[in-house]
Amino acid sequence: MNTEELARSVRELLERTNGILDIRRRTPPKPGERFNVFSVMNMETKEVDTHCRLLYELLSPNGSHGMGGCFLEAFFDLVLEKPYPGSTAVSVYREYVIDHTDDNYGRIDLLIQGRNFCYPIEVKVRAKDQWEQVKRYARFSSDAQDGQVFYLTLDGSVPSEDSLGGTDLSDIVCLSFADDIRRWLKRCGELAWNVPNVAEIIRQYMKLLDKLTGNYEGDVFMEQIKQTVKSSRDNFESAVAVSAALETVKAEKMRDIFKEIAGHVEAKGLEHCQSTYENASAIYYGPSRRRVWPGIIYPIPHQRCGDLHLALNIEVEDNLYYGLIFYKGNCEFAPQDVGQLADAFSDESWKTFIEKFTHRNDWWLWWRYLPGQESRLNFKTCGGLYPALYDPDSYREIMNQILAELDRGIKDMLETGLRKDT
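RESULT FIELD:
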């Protein structure tokens, strides 16, 4: 096709696709189709309390599912791709603490271990990588005859360079919830066909992963779109052209949003100490699968607390967030030192908040979605409010909501360190 023919074919394909999607938008959901216990309990992205806990329970031969070691055996086969030694020869741990020796330390999300093997599994849904985290886990597993670190993310992203700490990426196995875990869960559901309570929880968890990863398996409307793309050479070439343009379009939209946010925040007198969105937006949508967090960090004034700093952080992982982070040095995590922040603000609510703060391997003290808790922009799956960004009027409305939320949050943050409803 020449350029004119390609443009016409693309327009026709987009019009046909939009027609199918319009039917889907107007088709009412089946009763109960949207119900999901993890969503109702606001536990969708909680790595420790949702994902790690549920995976551990399913993997444990003594788990309350009552299925013995069959789920664990399927995990060895489909996910680890290792020979299964039998449930009596395997120990499964959650939040396994590495003894602090020299510079090796950490808390492994999931650990599968036996006499001759050691498989640490680092689970990342939303949290950032810690400094040399994968390197430390690789060192921990290296004494075993078969030591292998697995890095599990929603889409199979690779660890950050900071986490690798010079470790060869070829020594790390990257897994995804979208493919590896979903395939295993499907098998678990088949194994639990006669245990309806277990099978239903597995089914709902798979639905949650589909939501988080943008998986449309089983969607009859997406199947129609696939058939349309496959129906002719012109349609396929048009789809390829659209796909090639999408990465750039999405990266540009992300940069536009951050630029407007930066201009608004800096007009209030805050100056950023780190800005990653310009380059990271292209990497975020690029083919490298490198794990990045486009964003901007603004140090905020507070009473000096040793070598810890506080900052406003505006960031994209999957959704757009903002909140208060703490770190030392050059943006290094220091969760073990959080108690030093008790005197950062004189307000009693702040002191109480820090005293009761639950230790996490993270640098967020608190965070909120932008533009709001119930209104989310998912840059990874392009879900939620995201498509509305491409309508000029809707874009303006969403940005106004984002800037208004930041105005409220920054005002509270500068006074007491806390968003009033934190």
